[in-house]
Design a protein that fits this description.
Blueprint (H helix, E strand, L loop, with lengths): L3 E9 L3 H12 L5 E4 L8 H4 L31 H14 L6 E2 L4 E7 L4 E6 L4 E9 L21 E4 L13 E5 L5 H8 L5 E5 L6 E2 L8 H9 L1 H23 L6 H14 L3 H7 L11 E2 L3 H5 L4 E4 L3 E5 L2 E4 L4 E3 L2 E4 L14 E2 L6 H4 L18 E3 L12 H22 L3 E5 L1 H15 L3 H4 L21 H7 L8 E6 L10 E5 L5 H4 L10 H11 L1
Parallel strand pairs: 1-2, 1-6, 2-3, 4-17, 6-18, 7-16, 8-9, 8-16, 9-12, 10-11
Antiparallel strand pairs: 4-5, 5-6, 13-14, 14-15, 19-20, 20-21
């Protein structure tokens, strides 16, 4: 029998964003919600990415919720297994298990214009309706594998870094590693000692800084456990240092010259062969692509069983892999470290809005969302880690918590408005927000650094990264401005007739479009007052 359930809020995904949303809902007194997870356990990207050497490149005490500090982090940069265990602990500590529905992959979310709620279908046949949907699937959830001619005929083993085949023994095997991103630089040194030969396909070399990782002593853990304020201070210091670095990325890329010198020294220390060193030295400004951290990557590439090919994989002929320059290698396994669908998230194809169009169709010219959260035409639908909320130098948990503040106030506004009601972002407000973000993006290192990164979409627009500080983002997501939304209500049912839907402007038309999008209210107090009267 088909299971059906109606809830106030449906959260999609159980990574940091989804579990954080669940905790915040409970703290707001909302217990009528579910967390729909497609896998058989929580953890998001830290569940999916279990490849050898997987670890975080943000310090542990900063890469954790402010409301759930962990004094027991074993290392300054903790590994995947510790981060996943932390998320399991959060689920237990905050009583989230009763709300979580595992093995519930969402296949369709469709807005019902008459009932003013979302109809949700899952792969296992269960269906839900929800007044509000919080999509927390994250940008690093769906692996991206290039379409390589001949790949389907490869007789060996093929897998992506985010879908690691733990049953396949790499000992003595000839391995092709495709890609040199954040995953690859951790995988290469982890498996290099055991493979017979490795061929690394590198289209563009990354800038790699030394990884200042160490074991956190028992004394430090005791101190943080006994005096929690010391852990808070440590987190604050880590945050402050990164906050001071932001202007170099967003306003003054030339200030990154010293960082670039450190990175050049890092490769020079490990790579003595001038030819190989030239292959591994980028020609673009540091910071244009994500700066990677490793003290073992370069030494691994210098080992005699590793070949670096400075061209992408172009073709597969049987067990032979061929680079775009014609270089060939016989391999037993192909490992793709080629990233994820970040600017073309598959979940967008499963969301159908008020006009019957999918979110993917609405975003065909590029992702766009008001304050990184809501999109016009998709009432009561909000995303965590949405467009232009990514970071290039700090912890995404800071951005997630800011978006949770916005989510909480969004739900409060719905409660104040009362009745069967929805908020739909004004197109003018979304346009203004997006235009100002893109204007600020022009002078950032991500747009001026001379590289082609995964931050950019198919049109060359940076729809991924936030061009400011986390403090600034916290400020602009502190509260919902009703002037940026239309209030949609279901009119009372007349005898024998269905429910009609009306839209009432929450503020004076055009006010949001004419106001500032960064800092301060985007609508005057007078307009806000008028909106409340109109909504009532």
């Amino acid at each position: 029998m088909t299971q059906h359930e109606h809830v106030r809020v449906a959260v999609i995904g159980s990574g940091f964003g989804g579990l954080g949303a669940a905790v915040r809902l409970r703290r707001e007194g909302i217990t009528d919600f579910v967390v729909l997870e497609r896998a058989d356990s929580v953890g998001g990207t830290w569940r999916d990415n279990s490849y050898p050497g997987c670890a975080c490149d943000v310090p542990s005490h900063l890469y954790s919720f402010s409301f759930a500090p962990n004094p027991e982090w074993p290392r300054t940069f903790s590994g995947q297994e510790h981060i996943r265990a932390y998320l399991e602990h959060v689920a237990d500590t905050f009583g989230l298990r009763p709300h979580i529905r595992l093995n519930h992959e969402v296949t369709l979310m469709r807005w019902d214009r008459e009932e003013l709620y979302w109809r949700i279908e899952t792969a296992n046949g269960a269906t839900f309706t929800a007044d509000v949907v919080i999509s927390a699937t994250g940008p690093l959830s769906d692996p991206k594998t290039p379409d390589i001619p001949g790949l389907e005929g490869f007789p060996g083993r093929i897998f992506h870094s985010a879908r690691w085949d733990h049953d396949y023994d790499l000992t003595g095997k000839r391995v092709a590693m495709v890609g040199t991103g954040a995953s690859a630089i951790q995988i290469v040194p982890a498996i290099q000692p055991e493979v017979g030969r490795m061929t690394l396909f590198q289209r563009t070399p990354p800038w790699v800084m030394p990884r200042m990782d160490r074991r956190i002593s028992g004394a430090e853990r005791w101190l943080h456990r006994t005096l929690p304020i010391t852990g808070t201070a440590r987190r604050g210091l880590l945050w402050g240092i990164r906050e001071l670095q932001v202007s170099a990325f967003t306003k003054h890329p030339n200030e990154l010259g010293l960082v670039e010198k450190i990175a050049r020294s890092n490769v020079a220390r490990a790579i003595k062969d001038p030819v190989l060193r030239a292959k591994l030295t980028p020609s673009y400004r540091i910071g244009c692509k994500r700066i990677l951290l490793s003290s073992t990557y370069y030494p691994a590439l210098a080992r005699p069983n590793v070949d670096v090919v400075t061209f992408g994989l172009a073709e597969v002929r049987g067990s032979t892999v061929v680079a775009s320059d014609g270089t060939e290698a016989e391999v037993d396994a192909i490992i793709f470290g080629t990233g994820f669908h970040v600017t073309d998230m598959p979940i967008a194809e499963r969301v159908v809005g008020a006009e019957g169009t999918t979110l993917a169709e609405a975003w065909k010219d590029g992702m766009r969302a008001l304050r990184g959260a809501t999109t016009d035409g998709f009432p009561n639908w909000m995303t965590i880690i949405g467009p232009n909320t990514g970071l290039g130098n700090s912890s995404m948990i800071l951005m997630i918590e800011s978006q949770l503040n916005y989510m909480a106030d969004y739900l409060r506004q719905l409660n104040v408005l009362g009745g069967r009601v929805a908020l739909d972002a004004r197109r003018s407000a979304v346009d203004v927000w997006n235009r100002r973000v893109q204007q600020r993006m022009k002078r950032t290192v991500w747009n001026t650094g001379g590289c082609d990164s995964w931050y950019l979409d198919a049109n060359g627009r940076n729809t991924t990264v936030w061009p400011g500080t986390t403090t600034e983002f916290r400020k602009v997501t502190r509260a919902v401005d009703l002037g940026e939304y239309e209030v949609v209500r279901a009119r009372e049912r007349s005898a024998g007739a269905g429910a009609a839907v009306g839209a009432v402007a929450a503020g004076a038309p055009g006010v949001a479009a004419a106001s500032g999008a960064f800092g301060g209210s985007a609508v005057s107090a007078m307009a806000g007052s008028a909106g409340k009267k109109a909504a009532g």
